[in-house]
Recover the amino acids of this structure.
């Protein structure tokens, strides 16, 4: 296990070079992958979601790099969207922000670039979630402080009154509880 992490760290310059050659700065400015072995770590439950197209392109780039390396021949690559973080740079009401969030937060927020108002079923259908109730904790986290979304009846919209005192805004992780208890 430690060998996997060490190898990934040592290959970071090669990964960055691969992305520079095969991508554009508009798609990937900086990329870092944590390679973990599932059998060695207690991981959160995997969310079955379909990410936005730009994330799929980034995943495919990394998968191409990963599978081209002969040392990874007997390894399977899986994406766990409950792990990791994404930093989004955006401008809102003439103020620049950096939003630090989980991948699943970004997947939901990206949907609002196309449509101003969505229901839970709309979001679940767009992300191809097998069970729409798995998205409720994600939406609750987006409704909480700093209140990026607001909810009216059963519709979610971006909060036009969003304000933050800090340039760097951190979203709370969704609280996925075990519903089988």
């Amino acid at each position: 296990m430690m060998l996997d992490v060490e190898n990934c760290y040592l290959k970071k310059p090669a990964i960055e070079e691969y992305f520079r050659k095969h991508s554009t700065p508009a798609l990937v400015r900086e990329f870092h992958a944590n390679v973990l072995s599932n059998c060695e770590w207690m991981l959160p439950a995997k969310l079955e979601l379909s990410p936005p197209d730009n994330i799929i392109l980034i995943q495919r780039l990394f998968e191409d790099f990963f599978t081209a390396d002969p040392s990874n021949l007997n390894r399977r690559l899986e994406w766990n969207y409950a792990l990791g973080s994404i930093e989004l740079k955006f401008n809102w009401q003439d103020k620049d922000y950096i939003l630090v969030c989980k991948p699943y937060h970004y997947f939901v927020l990206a949907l609002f670039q196309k449509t101003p108002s969505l229901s839970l079923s709309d979001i679940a259908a767009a992300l191809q979630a097998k069970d729409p109730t798995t998205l409720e904790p994600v939406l609750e986290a987006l409704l909480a402080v700093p209140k990026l979304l607001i909810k009216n009846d059963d519709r979610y919209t971006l909060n036009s009154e969003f304000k933050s005192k800090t340039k760097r805004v951190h979203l709370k992780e969704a609280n996925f509880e075990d519903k089988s208890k």
